[in-house]
């Protein structure tokens, strides 16, 4: 097969929709994170107050609690698109309102509005994940994952670095937030014209069914517990390697500027390229072989940090090579991992099952930090990164052990 044919999977309306909803998902995030902190700082608020504002992101962690509502109650013009449009219109209104307020004068109101942005954004994410899963064909899952990540990253740049630059050069914060609100409103228009998934699955008949049946159905499947273990373990190697990466590079003598350039710019590009390459190769390899090959690669490429630890002095060529290979393989692994989550969802309960599965998939990224600190203290940096490579072994072994089951998922 000519290599260009691998990329033909990207050339349809469903994949275009997956990219734009990825952008819609990522845009509000910085407005409750780094950009919000800049707004509060410019308003003269002290660091303790700004620290409390970091808690407004909690809805992203707990969104699975209300995900059954989205499975149970469809909203026109489509079961998922209706929820997406509603959240986007609410987000546009709240973001525009934030732009018209001075947080120093309306602190509590501003905090409530920021919390609402996170809540509406998290709810939008539930609908988006379900929509993408139901929209694409099984052979398009890798491509949908790749373009979704690309759209998400571009949106974070827009509302993160882009908003900071605009507020510092062209606009003030009020105008910048109004621009972000206008972009979200335009995304609602795009959502209205997006294709409706072709599925015969009926919504749950009651809220009780929407809460109980997703897990009753999932655990009735053969190998359900091993599949959950795979979801948790697959990205564990990356979670360990990335948990203290900035601290590691500072200890190795690299400057903050070089670390930022390597991780935030070069690493981002490598991750995006890896996502697209991974999606293209998934057309040929299928889900099982992609999970196996990309799982091995994302574990082995963490050894680049071991080489940095052994170098003894800053080596910029070595740093950029290590970051390139690690993020390239990590992007491939992320594409395969998202495709796995999509394949595990029953169309009747996509919102609930995907929300909880994605929370499990994020387990390592959220919780390995404390363990990583103790391991570094006991082992030293070099041996810690050997451990991070070894942490990828359980995930790869689970892929191999579940190969027959994963191949079944790939044809449904």
From TrEMBL:
The chain crosses the membrane at residues 50-70, 82-101, 107-131, 143-165, 177-195, 224-245, 265-283, 290-308, 320-342, 354-375, 381-402. The keyword Transmembrane applies. It comes from the Bacteria. Pfam families: MFS_1. Residues 14-407 form the Major facilitator superfamily (MFS) profile domain. Keywords: Membrane, Transmembrane, Transmembrane helix, Transport. CDD domains: MFS_AmpG_like. InterPro entries: AmpG_permease/AT-1, MFS, MFS_dom, MFS_trans_sf. Gene3D superfamilies: MFS general substrate transporter like domains. It is a multi-pass membrane protein. It is found in: Membrane. Its main location: membrane. This is MFS transporter. The lineage of its organism: Bacteria, Pseudomonadati, Pseudomonadota, Betaproteobacteria, Neisseriales.
